[in-house]
Amino acid sequence: MTQLVRMFLLVFIVAFGLMYLTSYLNSSAGYSGGNTLTVYNWGDYIDPELIAQFEEETGIKVIYQTFDSNEAMMTKIKQGGTTFDVAIPSEYAISKMKEDDLLLKLDHSKLPNLEHIDSRFMHLSFDPENAYSVPYFWGTVGIVFNPDLVGDLTFDSWDDLWDESLRNNVFLLDGAREVIGMGLNSLGYSLNDTNEEHLQEALAKLSKLTPNVKAIVGDEIKMLMANEEAAVGLVWSGDASEIMDENEALDYIVPEEGSNLWFDNMVIPKTARNLDGAHQFINFMLNPEVAAQNTEYVGYSTPNKDALAILPEDISGDERFYPDEELTERLEVYDNLGPRMLSHYNELFLEFKMHRK
Ligand code: N2P
Predict the structure, then answer these.
(1) How far is the CA of 137 from the centre of ligand 1 (A)?
(2) What per-residue confidence (pLDDT) applies to 293?
(3) For this UniProt entry, which segments traverse the membrane (predicted)?
(4) How many angstroms is it from 166 CA to the middle of ligand 1?
C-alpha cells in the first residue's frame, strides 16, 4: 500500500469511529440525533429544571442562549448566522421585529395551552391577533429599597432617588429605555417622548443623579441588592421579588409619576430550523404547572391565569407584583419608536453612562 492510501484509510477509520461515537452518545442521552432546539432568552429568566423536563418529555435537546437587552437580541437576530428557534422579546421589540420581517407566524393549532392565558394579556396592540407572539411574563419598572437604610424617603416620587442622602447608594439596571424613561417620567413626561428638548432635559436631570449612582448593572443587581451593597435599586419588578425573597427587609414601589408596564412574549424568529420543536416548547411553557413552577423560580408575574390559581396566595395576592387597575392606569407600555429614535435613546443612555466616569 502506498503511504497515501494508508493515510486515507486512517482518516476514514477515525472519521467513521467519531461518527459512531457521537450517535452513540446522543442516543444514550435520550436525544434523537439532530433534534435540537435553540432558545434565546433573557438571563435568569427560566427554571433550568424545566428545560431538562422538556428535553426528557420530548427527546429534543435544548441549546440555551441568553441576552440582556432587546436591542442586543434584535441586532443578533438581524445580522444572521444564528439558528434561534424561540426568542422572548418585549412588546416594542416584537413590533419592530414584525416590521423588519424577522418573525414567523405561529400555528395556533399547535398551542392548545394558549387557553390558560388571561385574556387581559392577549390581543395587545403590538400583536393584535397574537399571530407572532404569545405571553411569557409581564411586569413593571420600579424601585427596590431597604427601608432601614433610607431614612424618611418613601419613593412615592421618582425624585426621591435624587436625594442627597443617597450618595453612591443607588444601583440602576442597565437598560436604555428604562433609565431614559425614568428620567422622562420624573419630569412628568411620557416614557415614549420623542421631543428633543424633553429628551435633553431628561439627560440633564439624569446627569444630576450621577453622584448617587453606585453602578449600572445587569442581572447581578439581585445579588448586590440582597447583600445590601446599596440601599436602593431601579429594577424590573420580578428582580425585586427575587431580591425580597432573599432579603425580607426590602420593599418595592412604583412611584406616582408613573412607570413602565412591559410584556415579554415568546416568538419564533425567521432563523428557526425546528418549527415543530419551537411550537412544542412554547406550548410546554404555557402549561399551567410549568408556568407556575417557572413563576416561583424567576419571581416575575405570570400572565397564565391557571398557573396563578395554583400559586400560593403570598405570590398571587401580592399587589406589588400583580398591581390593581388603579396602579396599571399610571403605567405606560413602551411604543416602538422606530429605529432612529431607538438608537437615539441608546446614544443618550451611553452619554449618561460616560458622564459617570
Ligand atoms: C430577567 C429580565 C427581565 C426582562 N432577567 C424584563 N423585560
Answers:
(1) 9
(2) 98
(3) 7-25
(4) 26
> Above 70 in pLDDT, residue 148?
yes
Nearest CA owner, ligand 1 atom 2: 42
Residue 51 Cα to ligand 1 middle (Å): 18
**Which residue has the least CA distance to atom 4 on ligand 1?**
42
The residue whose CA has the least distance to atom 6 of ligand 1 is 236
Residues 234 and 252 in one domain: yes
pLDDT at 28 over 50: no
In a domain, 1, yes or no: no
Q: Are 150 and 130 members of one domain?
A: no
Q: What's the confidence (pLDDT) of residue 16?
A: 54
Rounded (5°) CA angle 266-270-275: 70
Single pTM value for the model: 0.89
Q: Compute, in degrees rounded to 10, the torsion defined by CA atoms 244, 247, 250, 253.
A: -10
Alpha-carbon distances of 179 from 167, 174, 197, 203, 350, rounded to whole Å: 18, 8, 17, 10, 11
181 contacts 200 by C-beta, under 8 angstroms: no
Number of domains in the chain: 2
260-279 tens-digit pLDDT: 999 999 999 999 999 999 99
Q: Kindly state the percentage of the chain with pLDDT values over 90.
A: 88
Per the annotation, does 345 bind a ligand?
A: no
How far is residue 277's CA from residue 132's CA, in Å, rounded to a whole number?
A: 16
Do 45 and 70 touch, CB atoms closer than 8 A? no
90 C-alpha vs ligand 1 centroid, how far in Å? 9
pLDDT digits 0-9 by tens, 305-323: 999 999 999 999 999 999 9
Which residues are near ligand 1 (CB < 6 Å)? 42-45, 90, 219, 236, 262, 264
If asked whether residues 234 and 351 sit together in one domain, one would say: yes
Q: What pLDDT, on the 0 to 100 scale, is given for residue 26?
A: 40
**pLDDT higher than threshold 70 for residue 22:** no
DSSP line for 231-243:
SEEEEEHHHHHHH
